[in-house]
Amino acid sequence: MHHPEVYIGQIQPYDGGRPSAIAKRQVDGAVKLTPLGLEGDQQAEKSFHGGPDRALCHYPREHYAHWREQFPAQADLFSAPAFGENLSTAGLTEHQVFMGDIFRWGEALIQVTQPRSPCFKLNYHFAIDDLSVLMQHSGRCGWLYRVISPGLVSSDRPLELMTRNSEVSVAEAIGIAWHMPFDEEQYRRLLSVAGLSASWSKTLLLRISEGKIEDFDRRLLGR
C-alpha cells in the first residue's frame, strides 16, 4: 500500500526571485481536500501551477537519491518536499502511474491529469541554473492530479488505484511531450487520454496546428 506523506505551503517572497509556495511543511492527521487542492496550500504562478486540473502535485521520494548524486554540494537540499510536492511516496514512479489513473485516497477520488512541467522557479529555489532543464531531460518530474470527489484525506490513508483509463504511462507522456521530435500521431494519442489537463491539451493542439514544438525556454529558464 502506498501511504503518502502529505505537505502544504504558503506563498513566500524569495530574494532575487518571484514569490513562490514551493517551501512546504508536513501535515499529520486529516486535512480537507477541495477541488482546488489541500486546505491551507497555495500556488503562486497560476499559469504553470494550480487550478482544478493541477490541484495536487505528487513526487516520487526515490528520485531524491539521483539529485543528491548529481549535486553532492547541495545534497542536504534534496529530500521531500523540496520540489513543492503535496504527496510523497516510495514505490510509485512515472513508470507505474498512468495518465488518467483514478485513485481513491481517504474519502476523496483523484485523477492524474499531466506530468509536472518543470519551471524556472526550481532553478532559483535550489540556486542551480539549469535544474528545470535537467529535471525535464531526466524524466524525474512527478505528476499532477485533479480532484474528482473532495473529502478528508491523510497520510494514514493509502492511495488505491480504482480505474486505469489509458495505456500511456506518465513516463511515456514525458517522452512524447519533451524528448521526441515532432510527432503528430503521438500527440493525438496523448490528446485522447481521459482526464488530460486543459493546459496539456492546448499545448498539443497548438503543436498540431502550427506543425512545430513550442520553445521550452520561457517555462524552463524564465526568458
UniProtKB/TrEMBL annotation:
NCBIfam families: PRK11536.1. Coiled coil: none annotated. Pfam families: MOSC, YiiM_3-alpha. GO terms for molecular function: catalytic activity; molybdenum ion binding; pyridoxal phosphate binding. The lineage of its organism: Bacteria, Pseudomonadati, Pseudomonadota, Gammaproteobacteria, Enterobacterales. It comes from the Bacteria. InterPro entries: Benzoxazolinone_Detox_Enz (IPR052353), MoCF_Sase_C (IPR005302), Pyrv_Knase-like_insert_dom_sf (IPR011037), Tri_helical_YiiM-like (IPR005163). It comes from Serratia odorifera DSM 4582. Residues 25-162 form the MOSC domain. This is MOSC domain protein.
